[in-house]
Amino acid sequence: MIQETISGWQLGQWLEDAKAECLVLGISAHEVHWFVQELTGLDRLTLRLQTFKQQPSVPLQVPWSELTQLWQRRLTERIPVQYLVGVTHWRQFTLKVSPAVLIPRPETELIIDLAQSAAENLDQDGIWADLGTGSGAIAIGLADIFPRAEIHGVDTSLEALAIAQYNAETTGFADRIQFHHGSWWQPLDFLQGKLTGMVSNPPYIPSNLIPTLQPEVAHHEPTLALDGGGDGLDCIRDLVETAPRYLRSGGLWIVEIMAGQGEAVAGLLQAQGSYSKIKIISDLAGFDRFVIAYLK
Ligand SMILES: C[S@@+](CC[C@H](N)C(=O)[O-])C[C@H]1O[C@@H](n2cnc3c(N)ncnc32)[C@H](O)[C@@H]1O
């Protein structure tokens, strides 16, 4: 609901100041536009071309005082802008986020395309699982690319599952995705041997690295979503060991990993003995980012 307006000229002045503050703190100046875009009715092009400066009044979705206070919290507390505005954009979706969920990352968008191409010769109408669903992003992406598939999303966090459910509803996929509370496969016991594919972006950061991450991540994103134990591979080890019981023969196993973990994860899959066609896949920046395998 529009509660207030501000003159285009005043907004222009504020934007200039906010961008200068970003420069000092090493925050991308794009964030200011993104922040204003979410909290006003202005679109990206209008902000970039600054045509709003001639507008006598720009409508706001929150009072001006609240908008500026939120921005101050961005700068002083290093709260991610997505948590401040309550949404993020991921693939073609606008997803609700809160500090209860990891902010879905642009690099994770690729896992959906990978699942699609890796599943070309599989039964795409089958049953798919997104283990560690968080905001529900991957489950929603899978529902989108596999229009007749049955999707299951699992998380141990009830707060995350409430957000995932909300996102499934607002994106129109609620009837295609079932969310379950529990640890990895445990709530999917009834699907043993039936899964066409498992897609997961599990916690994979080594515990001792978490305090060294940028403050937006280390202080504000849920540790449950980040911490992969001593070497970062605790959850992945679990998924390597347990997935063969749930995947059907030929079923797909895809996991997001951290740069440098590719060889170790491929080694775990190899040693487990039930997988074939194990492949490490790099992201657009050229770092190990995903590992794919198929159940023999
Ligand atoms: C890295 S986040 C990924 C969230 C989302 N899938 C994404 O890609 O944006 C990892 C998720 O795994 C969940 N998680 C951690 N341990 C889990 C477990 N034992 N069983 C199920 N989910 C778990 C966390 O709550 C978090 O939502």
Automatic annotation (TrEMBL):
Keyword Transmembrane helix: no
CDD domains noted in UniProt: AdoMet_MTases (cd02440)
Record GO terms (molecular function): peptide chain release factor N(5)-glutamine methyltransferase activity
Pfam family of the protein (one): MTS
Annotated catalysed reactions: L-glutaminyl-[peptide chain release factor] + S-adenosyl-L-methionine = N(5)-methyl-L-glutaminyl-[peptide chain release factor] + S-adenosyl-L-homocysteine + H(+)
Signal peptide: none
This protein's encoding gene: prmC
Tree of life domain: Bacteria
Protein name per Swiss-Prot or TrEMBL: Release factor glutamine methyltransferase
Reported function: Methylates the class 1 translation termination release factors RF1/PrfA and RF2/PrfB on the glutamine residue of the universally conserved GGQ motif.
Keyword Transferase: yes
Top EC class, one word: transferase
HAMAP family: RF_methyltr_PrmC
The protein's Enzyme Commission number: 2.1.1.297
Residues where S-adenosyl-L-methionine binds: 132-136, 155, 184, 201
Keywords, in A-Z order: Methyltransferase, S-adenosyl-L-methionine, Transferase
InterPro entries: DNA_methylase_N6_adenine_CS, HemK-like, RF_glutamine_MTase_cyano, RF_methyltr_PrmC, SAM-dependent_MTases_sf, Small_mtfrase_dom
Residue ranges constituting the Methyltransferase small domain according to the UniProt record: 122-204
PANTHER family documented for this protein: PTHR47441, RELEASE FACTOR GLUTAMINE METHYLTRANSFERASE
